[in-house]
Amino acid sequence: MVPSFTPLAWGLTSIIVSEDLKQEIASYRNALTAQPLGHPDHSTSLINLTNAVFTRYKKSGRMEDLNNAITYNREVLALCPLDHQCHATSLNKLAKAVLACYNQSGQMEDLEEAITYHNEALTLRPLGHPDHSVLLINFTNAVQTRYGQSGGMEDLNNAIKCHREALALCPLGHQHHAICLNNLAVVVLACYNQSGLIEDLEAAIAYSSRALALRPLGHPDHSMSLINLAIAVRDRYDRLGRMDDLDEAIKYNREAFSLSPLGHQCHSTSLNNLAITVFNRYMQSGQMVDLEAAITYNRESLALCPLGHPDRSSSLINLAAAVNDRYD
After folding, report:
1. Using CA of residue 37, residue 40, residue 43, residue 47, what is the dihedral sign?
2. How far apart are CA 112 and CA 283, in angstroms?
3. 22: phi then psi, degrees, rounded to nearest 5
4. What is the pLDDT of residues 123-159, one digit of tens each?
5. Fewest CB within 10 A of the end CB: N or C in the chain?
6. Number of helices and strands in the chain (H, E)
């Protein structure tokens, strides 16, 4: 089977946008119309509209909202020159919107632009500034995304270095401590996949375990933490062949899947990973119940990857492998 494990689920879920948000956007548009460029409240209305439109994009996934958010963010930035107190904040928001565009389009120029904006914002908020750690996290995540596309070791090493710095700035009790642990776990695991050093793998498992402990059942990132820990533990199974690691990975994947119904951002990832780990256990145990489960999960995973989807080929291969084994 194709080991298509995904530690970060970027897909946006299409859900119903509340009427309150629709009315809020309409009100901000009306206010902006009544307060054209030059009006003392123009920038405030523009910022309010920009934030609301980007919020609707994150809820609905509509490209029209994302494109509008990018346009509005560029206008806000133009109203906040380099010496303006909101310049760094405007850069950060524009970077987030452009990075979201990259996640939809896959265009590298969008990713490079987002990294540039994040880097400029970080430069304006050096060590000691209250926003430094957040901007460092945002910049590093963008660099990490570029590593995922290009495989450049410079990006990976830079991401590890910056994530370690962010963790040092966000100790236990800090609101971003769990985020830093999770991010560091992901890049250290990527480092293990390059280096093959078991200490990198053990460190990734340790970071993921600590992040999960800080995101108990009910936390919005609980499912993602389960998925990341399952991937690392499954990699240790691949390395050492210990069945308890494989059973543990299946347990985490099952829990993540049960908490991620259709429409949840983690649904597809948890389903795919569960199908792979259950098939792995069938290959070890020969139990038909595992093979039947793997086929079921793979069929469901394929249904989420229509023609043209980037993961369709790997889903077809995984399902074919499982069905072929049942024929044998």
Report:
1. negative
2. 42
3. -60, -45
4. 999 999 999 999 999 999 999 999 999 999 999 999 9
5. C
6. 14, 0
Using alpha carbons only, give the angle 26, 32, 24 rounded to the nearest 5 degrees. Answer: 25
How far is Cα 73 from Cα 94, in angstroms, rounded to an integer?
5
Residue type, 57: Y
Same fold, 16-124 and 245-328: yes
Domain borders along the chain are 16-124, 245-328
CATH number of 245-328: 1.25.40
Residue 188 amino acid letter:
V
> Which among 41, 104, 44, 37 is positioned nearest to 70, based on CA atoms?
104
Other Cβ atoms less than 10 A from the Cβ of 184: the count is 25
pLDDT tens for residues 299-314?
A: 999 999 989 888 899 9
Rounded Cα distance between 166 and 162, Å, is 6
Q: Name residue, tokens 């259950």.
A: 278
Question: Class of 16-124 per CATH?
Answer: mainly alpha
